[in-house]
Amino acid sequence: MHALGTQLLVELKDCQSDSLSDPVFVRNAMLEAARAAKATIVDDKFHHFSPFGVSGVVVIAESHLAIHTWPEYRYAAVDVFTCGETLKPEVAAIHLAHAFRSQNPSIHEIKRGIIGISNEKIAHKIEGEPGEVLSDDRPDHQGKGIEADEPSESLQVVY
Which of these, 39, 32, 28, lies nearest to 82 by C-alpha position? Predict the structure, then answer.
């Protein structure tokens, strides 16, 4: 089986609270983690909440690193999503656990975009007039166009 990407859900518990509320520290830690993992940084955006907490994302050519901190709980939730073979997402996750001095880190790995064994790419071509609603013949779409408001009945939510 081939997966298009790897997503690490990183739980950083029992962190140093001061670092979690410092937007400059959080940004630098995230950028350093991306560099340590050999990611190609495209852009970044961080926001400091009042009275505390930081959310941010580092956009990388291989996908992204995202974080939200709760200094009052000494906790940070981190998402490291990567595609390709050269980047090592676990390096970024371990770097962040050390940077925030997490005493209780955990990493959950999810393979994303499992497309099958053949690893075969297909070219997509959409034809039609501007504004035309396009649909396909697959039974799960039940004739709905791509502009349909309601979600497909085949959508599953997993908790």
Answer: 39
